[in-house]
């Protein structure tokens, strides 16, 4: 398995290209499969999907808190080094 075992990503990042990359690297990308959903979904699959959604929502909530409370939503720097400098100030 790859370095990262599972990725908790928003739906916008569940593209075919990202899915192929994760498969090649041996990581599992959370989220629904492409295509039409099957009529018979296993209860284990539902439970895993629900748990991963809970974990992802907690992470997204912390991003929202940082943007609202600490003003990180106002940072307009594009480069990693510049962003780190702005945050440090």
Total number of strands: 2
Number of helices: 3
Number of individual domains: 2
Strand order of the largest sheet: 1-2
The major pleated sheet works out as: 2 strands, parallel
SSE blueprint:
Blueprint (H helix, E strand, L loop, with lengths): L5 E2 L8 H10 L2 E2 L13 H27 L10 H9 L1
Parallel strand pairs: 1-2
Question: Can you give a write-up of this model?
Answer:
With 89 residues, the protein is mainly α. The chain folds into two domains: 1-33, no CATH class; 42-89, no CATH class. It is built from three helices and two strands; from the N terminus they run βαβαα. Strands 1-2 form a two-stranded parallel sheet. The longest helix is centred in the middle third of the chain and has 27 residues, at 43-69. The radius of gyration is 17 Å and the shape is elongated. The N and C termini lie far apart (39 Å).
């Amino acid at each position: 398995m790859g370095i990262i075992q599972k990725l908790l990503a928003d739906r916008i990042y569940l593209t075919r290209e990202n899915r192929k990359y994760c498969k090649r690297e041996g990581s599992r990308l959370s989220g629904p499969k492409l295509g039409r959903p099957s009529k018979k979904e296993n209860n284990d699959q539902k439970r895993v999907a629900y748990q991963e959604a809970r974990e992802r929502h907690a992470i997204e909530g912390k991003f929202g808190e940082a943007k609202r409370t600490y003003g990180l939503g106002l940072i307009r720097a594009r480069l990693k080094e510049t962003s780190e400098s702005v945050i440090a100030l």
